[in-house]
Amino acid sequence: MAADVKIDIAAEFTGKKAFKQADTATQKLTSNVKKLAGAVGLAYGTSAIIAYGKASVKAFAADEAAARRLTTAVENLGIGFANPQIADYIANLEKSAAVADDVLRPAFQGLLTTTGSLIQSQKLLNDAITISRASGVDLATVTEDLGKGYVGITRGLIKYNTGLTRAELTSKSFNEILGVILKRSAGAAEDYLDTTAYKFDVLSVATSNAAEIIGGGLVDAFALVGGGTDASDAAYVIESIATALANVSRQAGRTIGVIPTLIQNLKNLPRNIFSGFAGAQIGRNVVIPQKKEEVKLTLTQKKQEELMAKLEKDAIKREKERLALLNKQNTAKKLQGVIDKANLALGKASDVFDMDKIQIAAALTSQADALGKATSSAQQLQVANDVARLNVKKSILALEDAIASKDEAAIIAATNKLNADLKSLSALTGQSVKLTNIKSILDTLKPVDLISQKNLDDALAKIREMLALLASATGQSTAGVPKSGSLGSGIPAGDYIEPVSKAVAAQASIAAILEYADAAAARANAFADLLDMQNYADFLSLIEFQRSVGDFGGYSPSMNTGRGYGASGSSGNTIIINAGVGSDPNAIAEALDQYLQGAIDRGTLRVR
Amino acid sequence: MKRRRPAMPASVKGGVELRKALREFTPDLAKETQKELGKILKPITAKARGFIPSTAPLSGWANSNQKGSWSNRVWSSADAKRGIGYKTTPSKPNRSGFRSLVRIQNASVSGAIYETAGRKNPQGRPQAKMREVVIPTRRLDTGVGEERYMTSTGKGYGKSNNPYAGQQFIDALGGQITNAYVRKEGAVGRSSQKMKGRAIFRAFAEDQGRTTAAVIKAIENSKTNFEKVVAKGSGSGLSVGGR
Which of A410, A439, B208, B240 is spaced 20 to 30 Å from A20 by Cα? Predict the structure, then answer.
């Protein structure tokens, strides 16, 4: 802790170990670069040669990598034995079409992996070259577009001026589009062979091939000299030798003339001689290991043919699957289009209707009644208008059901019906309606099913049932109603609403149960009112009786006499109140109150 | 957490080599340089010593019967003052690769505590939340058991059970914490807190860079003198490296 409590007044950056190493490495690098720069700065010719050597090595490496990628792709398809033939094909195409193999290989590889067919790939590559010549679009782009087109993505083909619209490009098959393009590009490839550009292409291909060949040789040779196998080793040796040669040529003034010859001679020399020479120059004993011959298993001709046939078969199968998938997609799209159309019609219809308030069945019945009562044509027109609206509503519901069922035929039929109904409604709304139209609309109200025998039988059965109920009700009305005196409740016997059983309630609708409850409550209220009225009548009768007795409202000595009362004439049950001397009224009242309270407490008296 | 570097000292190139060369080839000049640096640095260290209290800031701190971690932190004014000094021997490189050539230091434990206490947390270190520690134990008589106690210790937190201990300690120390860091123009962000203190940093801040300038000048002078001496003796076959 204490060590941190300090103030550094002067310090020096001495660097750490890592810094020192980096510094050393940098110094070495700087030194090497300086040497190299000095050497390169001596003669332009030397730097050009170095650049060419480097480019050659690079070109060789790129070409080798592209070839390896193609080889791998072919092997992945299971036809590795066809690699030599493919290499020949590429080489021949390169010569005939003057397209560099480093362009052809990736193009062919792309087509091969896309189509999965050797034959198709070769055909498409030839077509691509033709189209490229005609359109001026580079071959890589053309092959990419054709590859995409082969799997159904035809959008990129529009750039070849086919004259087809975007919709046509989408709807037509790839072969049809390719046919159109090839028709327009016919002869372009042949014409191109006569152009100067083609000659330049030939030269360019030859030059690049030469670079690759030279590069390949240089890599093999110089990499061994450099003690490795990589192109980087070769590049290092090339630069060193070229620098040395530059020094020599600078003095001799014959650099340009010597170098190609020297390179050629170096190439022609056996490797062992060269390595010995080079090894001696750098003070190392370089021994070139003999390359081991790879042992490859060869397939029989029959097996090869079988594999090729399998490849083509797989490609065809894949194409069929793709087409099937495409058809499925198109079918789905078609169905979706129909549904969209139907939804559009629904949208139109919904604009016309207030869907929440209209109950179709009830409304149609109501309209049927209104039609029977209609006396003027204006009323008939109104009825027709309403019926048309209701028909539209029915059609909407039918169409919704059809959409839900995903039945294309049903959707189409429902849509047509809805459109027809909307048309009728539109005509009615515009008041330009003919009587025939009205008639046709009103005819829809006829319950066609009612005239069937079954419906008639059912109706008759209902009538019979109603008659039976009516007879029963009549019988009940003529029977004597028991009086309250006999029943005690004032309600006639059997005249009550039976409680609804659980089984019945479970099947009944909520509305029905509520209606039943309302009816029962109303009836109970009615009987309660009846009972009140009865009580009131009894009360009046009692008053009348007491009035006839004549002691209503006062005390009479003759009261509380007779049967049930005591034998004495004054009273049956005498209540003696001991209020003390003087008979204070308050004392009497208090004593009476105590007596009554005692009776209440005992339960013998109830106060209402 | 991002580590903040302390303020960069004046950078000198070839200082280590110069010192070696001085000691090797011109020992007298080396001694003279040391003396000159001492003259420059002594006033500031003397001033810093003056900021050290002559008695213990807390009465119990000077108690030599301290136990535990405070047994080697007993306050001694003499030690604290003696710990303040300067060094001119090059240090080992720090993690950034710098070697200190001249520095002022507060080397004693108690002096360093007095120097730095409260420079990071002026109100004392915060108290951690109380938590229960459960230690499983095995007793001979009862078998498996556990020991439980409450604590609020933790890294970066106050270790005392008294939540105000840090605040009380800092208040009792007194003194004045001064930041000697000179912020460069245009610098952004929070500046380093490692140049704050009550003794050497305060003295260095009050010096306002005069000592630094004098030290650099002294080193340059020694270099010049060394080159003169070498030039005089070049005829004798003496060769001097360095930058």
Answer: B240
Cα Dmax for chain B: 92
CA gap A245, A253 in Å, rounded? 11
Name which residue leads in pLDDT, A84 or A555: A84
Nearest CA in chain A to B105: A6
The mean per-residue pLDDT over the stretch A451-474 comes to 80
Q: Is the dihedral of CA B183, B187, B190, B192 positive or negative?
A: negative
Q: Which residues of A touch B179 (CB under 8 A)?
A: none
Which pair of structure tokens corresponds to residue A485?
């005196």
Q: Which two tokens stand for residue B239?
A: 């060769």
Question: How far is it, in rounded angstroms, from Cα B230 to Cα B238?
Answer: 7
Q: Inter-chain contact B109–A5, Cβ cutoff 8 Å?
A: no
pLDDT(A502) > 70: yes
CA-based nearest residue to B117, from B174, B77, B202: B174
Interface predicted TM-score of the whole assembly (ipTM), two decimals: 0.81
**Residues B178-218 pLDDT 10s:** 888 877 777 777 777 788 999 999 999 998 889 999 999 99
Q: What is the mean pLDDT of residues B141-170?
A: 82
Cα–Cα distance between A549 and A569 in angstroms, integer?
19
CA A337 to mean position of chain CA atoms = 17
C-alpha–C-alpha distance, residues A118 and A108, integer Å? 9
Q: Is B117 on the interface with A (CB under 8 A)?
A: no
Residues A57, A219: contact at Cβ < 8 Å? yes
By the CB < 8 Å criterion, does A17 face chain B? Answer: no
Q: What is the dihedral of CA A163, A166, A168, A169, to 10 degrees?
A: 90
